[in-house]
């Protein structure tokens, strides 16, 4: 019977075996995590919980990198994983841009607080929070609970490489989302709220329920309309940096070192130049102590940093890891990651790549109320869909969203099916108002932002669609159930 190693012994053995097999350099990464995820959809709860343990290795051979991972911590599996990684590196041939695995950094290390109280949260406690969340929303008139999800994640990681890096870190987070539909008005509209943090005090189930109800109620009774003009657009913080489709995520993609190195962005040669209005400052802050996306180290052991990407309209730098920093003649600024958005994805199974952390857009000198008052006709938009279909090289976008129609400086009513389009490099030069106080969100801090002129369209539902929605609403009111959910 095969002997199963501890995670520490597996990491140690793997490093020694890689060097024995001729690896020029080697990096080992281990992760031991516990996750609880409780979702409710169509009134059916689904609980997933478990512990995940594994190791991964990056090896250098013939001037290139190979990667492999295993969750089975036996001698045989470790050896086969590393041998496959070495074969992969050799088969790719020398990479003229690869210089080395990371060296120990002399930069300041900013430790992100770890709340041990999160370790005490159990599945039963999360189920109690889920019950509170659902019952609080269900008790509100004209609202129908649609779905929710609560998640707890705890992880202990270690990274060691043959250049002298040996770091360990612990991270934890608790958060969730809630969504509901409102039957007020012709269209039974949908809205959601997402919150979370890296401490017990930073996430409260009653606050999530309260904000979810607020967002759903103000989205009630939306209309559709025929509209086609270039008008001012106010983006709410969620439409700028929200995880469900923030427009400025497209800008971060264009400032990613891998895209810069390949020329797949208009900003490759723009460092030091004015690329937006002077009031616009964009930061990637990987050391914000309150955010789930912050950490002490990045995915390859470099210290996380607070990086000013655009300062008062002037492009300063890009999102960089060790490889693309070296390729561009720069240094890593701690933007390597082994997971995707919200930490989803198994860090052991994923080789390091560039990723943003906490997006921060600094506040300006206006208020939301002043933006609305200054808008003779336009829209305030909360959510956008379709950003993934944008042309990330040029920044061309065409997205559809939900928001409110503004006329003569007043918010008139919510509108479904608002479409905006344009070129992002041109759009950020049309920012004319930024609110004073950024809103704190799950993965970012962002103010309200107004653009002076954006091509905008909307289309009124035809008679057949309106009749269908009327029948849908009647069925919902009579049965208490929405046929679509």
What does this structure look like?
It is a single chain. This protein is α+β, with helices and mostly antiparallel strands. The chain folds into 2 domains: 7-215, 2-Layer Sandwich (PmbA/TldD fold); 225-458, no CATH class. 23% of the residues lie in helices and 35% in strands. The protein is built from 11 helices and 20 strands. The strands form 4 sheets. It has a 6-stranded antiparallel β-sheet with strand order 3-2-1-4-5-6. The chain has a 6-stranded mixed β-sheet with strand order 10-9-8-13-19-18. Strands 7-14-15-16-20 form a 5-stranded mixed β-barrel. α1 (7-20) packs across α2 and α3 packs parallel to α4. It is globular, with a radius of gyration of 25 Å. It starts with 6 loop residues before the first helix and ends in a 6-residue tail after the last helix. The relative contact order is 0.13. The mean pLDDT is 92.
In short:
The protein has 485 residues and is of the alpha+beta class. It has helices at 7-20, 75-92, 123-138, 205-218, 237-241, 248-254, 257-262, 322-327, 368-373, 424-427, 463-479; strands at 25-41, 44-61, 64-70, 143-161, 166-182, 189-197, 227-235, 282-285, 306-311, 314-315, 336-337, 353-354, 359-361, 377-385, 396-407, 410-423, 431-434, 439-440, 444-446, 449-458.
């Amino acid at each position: 019977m095969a002997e199963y190693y501890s995670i520490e012994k597996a990491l140690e053995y793997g490093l020694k075996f890689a060097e024995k097999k001729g690896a020029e350099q080697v990096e080992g990464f281990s992760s031991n995590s516990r996750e609880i995820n409780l979702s409710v959809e169509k009134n059916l709860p689904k609980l997933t919980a478990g512990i995940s343990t594994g190791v991964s290795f990056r090896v250098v051979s013939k001037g290139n990198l190979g990667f492999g991972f295993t969750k089975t911590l036996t001698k045989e599996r470790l050896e086969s994983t590393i041998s496959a990684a070495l074969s992969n590196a050799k088969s790719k041939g020398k990479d003229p841009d690869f210089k080395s695995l990371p060296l120990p950094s002399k930069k300041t290390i900013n430790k992100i607080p770890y709340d041990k109280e999160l370790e005490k949260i159990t599945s039963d406690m999360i189920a109690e929070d889920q019950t509170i969340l659902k019952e609080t929303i269900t008790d509100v008139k004209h609202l129908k609970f649609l779905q929710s999800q609560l998640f707890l994640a705890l992880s202990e990681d270690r990274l060691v490489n043959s250049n002298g890096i040996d770091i360990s870190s612990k991270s934890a987070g608790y958060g969730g989302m809630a969504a509901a539909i409102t039957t007020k008005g012709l269209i039974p509209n949908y809205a959601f709220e997402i919150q979370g943090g890296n401490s017990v005090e930073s996430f409260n189930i009653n606050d999530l329920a309260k904000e979810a109800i607020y967002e759903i109620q103000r989205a009630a009774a939306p209309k559709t309309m025929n509209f086609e003009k270039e008008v001012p657009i106010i983006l709410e913080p969620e439409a700028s940096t929200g995880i469900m489709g923030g427009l400025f995520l497209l800008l971060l993609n264009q400032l990613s070192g891998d895209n810069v190195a390949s020329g797949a962005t208009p900003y490759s040669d723009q460092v030091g130049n004015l690329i937006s209005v002077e009031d616009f400052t964009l930061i990637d802050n990987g050391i914000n102590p309150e955010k789930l996306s912050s950490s002490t180290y990045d995915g390859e052991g470099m210290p996380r940093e607070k990086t000013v990407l655009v300062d008062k309209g002037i492009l300063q730098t890009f999102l960089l890891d060790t490889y693309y920093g070296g390729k561009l003649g720069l240094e890593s600024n701690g933007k390597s990651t082994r997971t995707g958005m919200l930490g989803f994805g198994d860090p052991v199974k994923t080789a390091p790549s560039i990723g943003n952390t906490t997006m921060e857009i600094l506040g300006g000198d206006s208020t939301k109320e002043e933006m609305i008052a200054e808008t003779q006709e336009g829209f305030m938009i909360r959510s956008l869909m379709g950003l993934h279909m944008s042309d990330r090289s040029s920044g061309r976008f065409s997205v559809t969203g939900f928001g409110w129609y503004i006329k003569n400086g007043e918010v008139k009513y919510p509108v479904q099916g608002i479409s905006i389009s344009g070129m992002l490099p041109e759009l950020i030069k049309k920012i004319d108002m930024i609110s004073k106080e950024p809103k704190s969100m799950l993965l970012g801090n962002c103010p309200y932002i107004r653009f002076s002129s954006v091509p905008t369209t909307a289309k009124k539902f035809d008679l057949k669609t309106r009749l269908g929605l009327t029948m849908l609403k009647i069925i919902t009111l009579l049965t208490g159930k929405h046929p679509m959910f």
